[in-house]
Amino acid sequence: MSYIIPPQSTVALGDTGLTVSTIAWGMWRYAGDDVAAARARVEAALDAGITLLDTADIYGPDNGEPFGAAEALLGRVLADSPGLRDRMVLASKGGISMGVPYDSSPTYLAGAIDASLTRLGCDRIDLYQIHRPDLLTHPQEVARTLDDARTAGKIVAVGVSNHTPAQTAALAAFLNVPLVSQQPEFSALTTTPLFDGIIDQAMERGMAVLAWSPLGGGRLADPQDARARAVVALLDAKAAEARVDRAAVAYSWIMAHPARPIPIVGTQNPARIAAIPDAYTPRWTRTEWYAVLEASLGEKLP
């Protein structure tokens, strides 16, 4: 039986000189006032070999906290334990303004980068991503702002999130350095990036694909319809074979694609964070992988 070759545990992020783990830890739900508990979550990720930490300036309001709260909490952790910063590749995002909703104009975006650095207590963000495309800002203006921040040493690498391939290409055309990442929603229940050109473009350009909501927004944990239950049945069969949990299998299915998508794992439980490397255990045959895709699509592939 022939299995798809699993990913390595680390990968180069373009030609930036940065090396990242092939699973990321996401901080959308990173919240609270307990710095020791917040530090324990970060340490659990780093100790598990997860070096790519993904946050954003907009993370906070969804948790009933202010804009920038997740970055500020991480900043408090890094102030308390400065040595942690050198163990991570820190990614953040900007370009969403509460109530606007999107703003990547030069003044706003430059200010957003500075504000993120202040909250984080850092002199640089390793990977800065435009969170969502601002349709009212020309990509040349976005590129100029990002290039200026990079020249100033405030950011190292540049990526995008929730951009179409055309929007990605338009921004890339004006940047002085290549875009190194794209961040779409991608899971065994949200397979659109396989067909809309996002993943194909990433492979063409050598961009990392950071997959947000890799558990389908909780639908893989609690399937509510026939399609989700069909997918979960296949994932559970693989989980039993590999002796890991369903989440690990769901991540491994994503990582089996040749683009080597990097799932962004959002659990805030230190024990579950420590178990993230279980995702490297399952092995998929082509038949098994395609069976999950067909179950998700609800039809056989032609």
From TrEMBL:
Signal peptide: none
Classification via Pfam families: Aldo_ket_red
Alphabetized InterPro entries for the sequence: AKR_Detox_Biosynth, NAD(P)_OxRdtase_dom_sf, NADP_OxRdtase_dom
Coiled coil: none
The entry's keywords: Oxidoreductase
Residues covered by the NADP-dependent oxidoreductase domain: 23-280
Enzyme Commission designation: 1.-.-.-
Keyword Oxidoreductase among record annotations: yes
MF GO annotations: oxidoreductase activity
Domain of life: Bacteria
Protein name: Aldo/keto reductase family oxidoreductase
Organism, as annotated: Sphingomonas arantia
